[in-house]
Amino acid sequence: MGIIAYRMEKNTLKLALSLILLFFVSVPMLTSSLLDSEQERKNEENYQRILEEQSAQKEAEEKIYLMGKFDPAQRDDFILIPAQYIVDGSKMYLRKETLGAFLKMQEAAENDEIGIKIASATRSFDYQKGIWNNKWSGITIVDGQNLAKSVPDQSERFKKILEYSAAPGTSRHHWGTDIDINDATPEYFEGEKGGEIYEWLAKNAWAYGFCQPYNQKGNERQTGYNEEKWHWSYLPIAGTLTEDYKSLVKDEDINGFLGDEYAVGQNLINNYVLAINSACFSQ
Predict the structure, then answer these.
(1) pTM value surpassing 0.70
(2) CA separation for the pair 132, 162 (Å, rounded)
């Protein structure tokens, strides 16, 4: 019995030593596994944070672009328009794709003995601000009136300017996709020459990707700017940018010009930026 007890005690001791050894071997492995899991969790959190920061940065840059707060001369995707295609020969820029499409359209129009040139192209926020502020302060006469005197109610003056001019930060001309052709007055296109040009554009511009965003107002387009027969938008790019504007820019972002305190009350994005010819939302 003594030998049996001794053997049992010896086996018990071996088992205890094995368990102790297993403990000291397993603990570092478990600790290492927990540390690895924690590191993986932290790595995933850091990765998601980086993605969110990159997305936020991209959206901020896109908003700057959509609101015209950049210099087109400094962007690789814009190009200086050759002077012979400009009404007054001044320096203007467009997106490269827009200019390429216009040149094809201009050549086709010329073959049909229709002369078209660009009267206005890309406008920065500051350029549009100059147009707006001059109308607001009465430097630029609107419909034969000094609006600073003839429309003393500033809310009404804001609406009056909006008949044909976009508030800075809301113009499609910021994008490098939109052009005014030949002249930016209704009178020109009511004349014989302007009428012929508009008739040709209405019939053919779509073939080159251009759409008239501000068609005649009516049941389909009840709000927004008055009809502009001179304003044409290069839809393959502008269609996407319209949707981007809708998702990224808020009414409270529109400020930095005379009378901007009235911007929010006008619901500019829905009533003007998005109040366009339904055919100009997609190609």
Answers:
(1) yes
(2) 9
